[in-house]
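We emphasize that the prediction below concerns an isolated chain of 448 residues; any contacts that depend on oligomerization or on bound cofactors are therefore not represented. The input was used exactly as deposited, without trimming of termini.
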Amino acid sequence: MIIKNGKVIIAGGGLAGISAAVFLNKKGYEVELYESTPKLGGRTFSYIDKFSNRIYDNGKHILAGWYKNTLDLLELLNTKDKLFKNHSFFLRFYDNNKEMHELDGRGLSGKAGFIKALLKYRKLNFNDIYAISKVIYACNFRTNKYLSASNLKEILESTNQTTNSIEYFWKPLSVSIFNTSTENVSTKLFARVIENALSEKGNLDLLVPTDSLHNVFIDSAQRYFRNEDIKFSLSHRIVSVETSGNKVSYLKDSNGNKIEGDEFILAVPFWKANEFKNVFNLNGKHLQSSTIITIHLFTLNDEIIKELFIDEQPMIGFLDTTIDWAFKESNNHFSIVISGADNIRSPISGKVLTDCTKEEIFGICISDLIKSLKEFSFPLIEKYKIIKEKRATFVPDKDSDELRPSNKSKYDNLFFAGDWTDTGYPSTIESAVKSGKICSELINEKKL
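Result of the prediction step, given as a token string:
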């Protein structure tokens, strides 16, 4: 008979809950996970079209070398090999003059690779690069003169950034990492990300999943759970946390059943926190959400794919356009991502992009592709599907800092997990996974 360290109940089956379950299992705990929806994964999931047998990711995710906790999780889930890895900093962009530009730091690592990438980037001149270096210096050496600013936009203004450095470096960086515009990015959070990205060799490596999110994260997690006898229950909603003194006694589900354990983890998304007012204490306040729009395009042949994705690179960026990134899904399928869509107005109707019809968003996407690509034409598209993920992330502004709870609650045996908890990272896969791992470590520390 195997003696476990204790029984941990997890409410929430997104990446934070999955992470907590996997890392607790490795530490010898009995784990039970309850998810309110019919699927694991939370916002990291794929739609499976039963009629066409096609898989649609709700939004492609770029990972980075500094996603240490995510890479540890994928190692345990045996899907780390499903990542395309660019050693050192490397990105390609098309502009609306149909010209290609590269940020290419390959061959060098860390800060040297980053500097090389800037020097080879034809959208920037020496003055632009010098301006960028001032911000990097301020982040790495915690220069109070600049880091006392409220947000990234103020940092850029106080360091006299050039028009090119803002348009062709900082804005693409902001929407990619933080899913919002520069005025909505907390200075503290921005500085921590930059410092972390440049702190170790390999941290600037860019990683792109070469398979669906379902296969990389979700299907592999379910296999792991079954192989390790981790109990998980879908469509099983937790409605309350019952406490006594400084401890949680049990969780209650929607049927009134008591779910008892030794330790408890609430791994719920930020918009559900106020359903558990007795433990979160947010006083009715909530984080603001930020939208990601994904346009899946299916082509009649592979010519567009060949033009977009050179040298087997699975992603390409766009400059001076509404669309941000394109990702290769297969030889006749690619996806387009528009980040921070709540801050963008349609060049057609003037409406905020999240309020536009899918037909209008498709038209904007096609127009941008025609401006950017030499060989692209509308008749080459066979089919499209648009997915609006309105609560893809939270807005990481200064006010959000006080709303992000610690992973340890005021109750001895209750912990919080989720990308929105105070992990020190923005609302990313790494933040979600890290939160689950932190909870596993906090619980294990009690046993030592």
